[in-house]
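Have a think about this chain, tokens included, and walk me through the fold.
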Amino acid sequence: MEENIIISALNKVGITDLDFLIYMNSSRVKRYNMPVEYNIWGCWIDTDNKNNITNIRIIVPCVIDEQTLLINIHEYTHAYEAYLRLGETYMEDIERSEDTARQNEQLYLARKKKENE
């Protein structure tokens, strides 16, 4: 059920790539039932010796409320951006990446609100 909630939320923000979801769900996602305040969540990108992206992993909280769902959307957004560049040279742009992840959080909330009107 949790996976369906996440997939539905990602679809709302335009992340609909089934291959990406399959890739991430093949042991690349670690979920923890810890308080959000622990702030251990994140996206890790592995590279080879030429700095090409070789693997993507995320740590996210179990979805128990809207806040934990937004954290999942945020980290999956980072992962999706990296997934689109698998095999390419890793060029970190933290500011742009964080902006995109925050925009997806806001887009989800706006679309959810519109659905509930």
The longest strand covers residues 53-61.
